[in-house]
From TrEMBL:
One of its GO terms (molecular function) is thromboxane A2 receptor binding. This is C2 domain-containing protein. Gene3D superfamilies: C2 domain (2.60.40.150). Residues 163-181 have a biased composition (Basic and acidic residues). GO terms for cellular component: photoreceptor connecting cilium. Residues 198-222 have a biased composition (Acidic residues). It comes from the Eukaryota. CDD domains: C2. The lineage of its organism: Eukaryota, Metazoa, Chordata, Craniata, Vertebrata. Residues 9-133 form the C2 domain. Residues 1-20, 150-222 are annotated as: Disordered. One of its GO terms (biological process) is non-motile cilium assembly.
Length: 407
């Protein structure tokens, strides 16, 4: 799968104080150009792909659906007006822009066929992004995504200078058009990679075509589709727990040897809340192989509407006796269609301890955790690749109940 993204250098405009805290407006341009080597979950068919992403508190943006294409050409261009203030600075330093590729012909609406996260932190430092990441499509070889992104904006520093001075300074920078891009390479990226180097390779690239300021301003107004509102402030990461069930792999164990176990789905439970499960069961993988679910779920823990769930997080931070080590994943055997009189059976268990996550100060991102046998001696039967993002919510609860937690 090949993504090609581009962002044009933003324009700066002076607005009244009612529009932006710093009287300075910036435009973020995102263009999704194309994908290559896409595969439908029904491997004998071509997908009907489209891409979805969400920037800040703007609405989700969907590209057009390209029918029956493994190499769709989108050329989808969006423009997001954002205020030049410290909220934007904090947002860029803490968030990623996630692009999801969906297949419109897939009856399971929650399942995507590809995903990439683009961290935005380098944009807060006026630096180009060049990175190589893995995605998890349902193929034997894990492809890679290459990301290149030019600078988006100049983030104003906290100082005593007036808004007028800052607007003038940034306007002069745009007019000069001489900012240099600096590439950031991820660890392990030893050389440039191209699409022709491997058919299994997946890349994301982002380009900024050179053009003079006058031509660029004209093309911006002609091509840019601007959403109907301006984000007057960038929302900070919402207080939520995001759980993503990515893939399952089994090793040589009684589960792989049991011919009565043919299809598996994954159940996820947070404390005593109702369990969520992947909408599909997949064929049991052979030893050492991976099957991909690509399913995600969000649990909101904001104090305005979900105080009971925040109380659970408080109990976790207080290290009270908690069942299931905070979050439990269960691998469940789904009976064959011709034996529906049989019941589902738990065959494997994996756990994520949110207290450990808070103590270590990091989320679990696409990490493979041990799956233990739920039926026998509790020995390892495989790995479950998951993402659990809860650190922001845990820190929010800690700040709210700091006196109780430090007593």
């Amino acid at each position: 799968m090949f993504f090609q993204l581009s962002q044009q250098a933003p324009k700066t405009a002076q607005l009244g104080s009612t529009d932006s805290t710093d009287g300075n407006l910036n435009e973020l341009h995102v263009t999704v150009r194309c994908c290559s080597h896409l595969q439908s979950r029904a491997s004998h068919l071509q997908p009907h792909p489209y891409v979805v992403y969400k920037f800040s508190d703007f609405a989700d943006h969907d590209t057009a659906i390209i029918p029956s294409s493994s190499d769709p050409q989108f050329d989808d261009h969006m423009c997001f007006p954002v205020p030049m203030n410290m909220d934007l600075d904090r947002y860029l330093k803490s968030e990623s822009l996630s692009f999801y590729v969906f297949d419109d012909s897939d009856t399971q609406e929650d399942i995507y066929i590809g995903k990439v996260n683009v961290p935005l932190i380098s944009l807060a430092h006026d630096r180009c992004i060049s990175d190589t990441k893995e995605i998890s499509p349902e193929v034997e070889h894990t492809p890679e995504i290459e990301i290149n992104m030019p600078t988006v904006s100049h983030i104003p520093e906290v100082s005593q200078e007036s808004s007028v001075d800052k607007v003038k300074e940034n306007t002069e920078k745009v007019q000069q058009g001489k900012d240099d891009d600096v590439s950031l390479l991820s660890e392990g990226q030893l050389a440039e990679r191209t699409l022709t180097s491997s058919e299994d390779e997946t890349e994301i690239t982002e380009e900024l075509e050179p053009e003079d300021e006058e031509d660029r301003s004209a093309s911006d107004s002609d091509e840019c589709i601007i959403p109907g509102r301006i984000a007057k402030s960038i929302k900070q990461p919402s207080e939520k727990i995001r759980i993503e069930i990515i893939a399952l792999s089994l090793n040589d164990s009684p589960v792989t040897a049991d011919d009565t176990i043919q299809r598996l789905f994954i159940e996820c439970r947070f404390y005593s809340l109702p369990a969520e499960e992947t909408p599909v069961s997949l064929p049991k993988p052979k030893s050492g192989q991976w099957v991909y679910y690509n399913y995600s779920n969000v649990i909101y823990v904001d104090k305005e509407n979900n105080q009971a769930k925040r109380d659970i997080l408080k109990a976790i931070l207080l290290k009270q006796e908690m069942p299931n080590r905070s979050i439990r994943f269960t691998v469940v055997s789904d009976p064959p269609e011709d034996e529906q009189d049989l019941e589902c059976e738990d065959v494997g268990i994996a756990n994520v301890d949110l207290a450990d996550m808070f103590r270590e100060g990091r989320d679990i991102i696409e990490q493979s955790i041990d799956v233990l046998d739920a039926r026998a001696d509790g020995g390892g039967i495989g790995k479950l690749r998951v993402t659990v993002e809860a650190l922001h919510a845990l820190r929010s609860v800690y700040e709210q109940y700091r006196d109780d937690l430090e007593a």
